[in-house]
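Sequence in, structure out.
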Amino acid sequence: MVTPAKPDHLDGLMTDPYGTYAHLRESAPVRRIAGPDGTPAWLVTRYADVRAALADQRLSVDKRHALPGSYRGFSLPPALDANMLNMDPPDHTRIRRLVVKAFTKHRVESLRAPVRRTADALLDAIEGAGRADLVAAYAAPLPITTICDLLGVPADHRRDFTDWTDALIAPDPAKPDRAKETVVAMLGFYTALIADKRERPGEDLLSDLIATRDGGDRLSEDELTSLAFLLHFAGYENAVQLIGNAVLGLLRHPEQLAALRADPALLPGAVEEFMRYDTSAVFSIRRFAREDVTIGGVRVAAGETVFLGLGSAGRDPGRFPDPDRLDLTRDASGHLALGHGIHHCVGAPLARLELTIAIGALLERFPDLALGVPEEELRWRPSIRARGLLALPVTF
């Protein structure tokens, strides 16, 4: 029987994540912790161990391999749970082959102008005020607009989706039924949206997926609904927090902000450094050991849950010298913020495009951008799943 960890490990991850990672990398790089629901899991924190584990086929994402009593992740109905984050090959391979076509270099590049137009329109809306919450006014609506346009989601549902995502990423302890209500609402939304696309297909990704056959193998209805949920959820949740974290990183490092303003050609490399320095995806999707596995010299028993610390890997001094310093000239290639192996983020090209445009447009528009409150007043999402600011007040 797996023994739960003391909850103070979880508290440390929420209140001082990078300090906690540094301590764990030195003292217990593979450590048992309590998951978000209190059930036990292993946390892997060193870069080399995390990278190797991401590519280790003995670690499954399929919940059927989970040991009873260990952390399993979100509890979702089958119509939302049959997605790539819960699938091993061959099903994962089959579905990923369909989705990757949506994120080819050519298709993503075709989104550059629309994303830039959205960014400019959002900045137009706040320019006259001289101050704004950059999360609510910019970092959140930019990716939600992009992913909704890509999937063909009507504009009048976008506010609902933002609220749903927040309810799942950082559940409110005072509203224990909110997550279940959210899942029911999302399932109803996607079911109705897919039915509408079947009746009236458009020039969008969801319409394409409904019509697509891959060697005669059509997506099942649950797979289709789950895929729409995953693309929508991940396409918003990851990008909004990456943008907010990147802007805060620049404001915390004024010399780097000045360097980027002086040389915009640094931006592509800076995007990789932003993701390494303060990634939104704290952990990879949980894994379950198919068999007894040794990670970093520690035996993980078959069926036990493993968290792979993407955020910790990015701050490992064994891989990135002076890792707690944002350095836009650093070679940050090889970071694991978007994963590694067969589960590497399928939307990585879009995430990079959005972050590049969001930061570039913001700095062009506001040469005197500054933090609008003392840094100690900033508040982070109460979540170990995703690292992001609740608000980012700025002046300009």
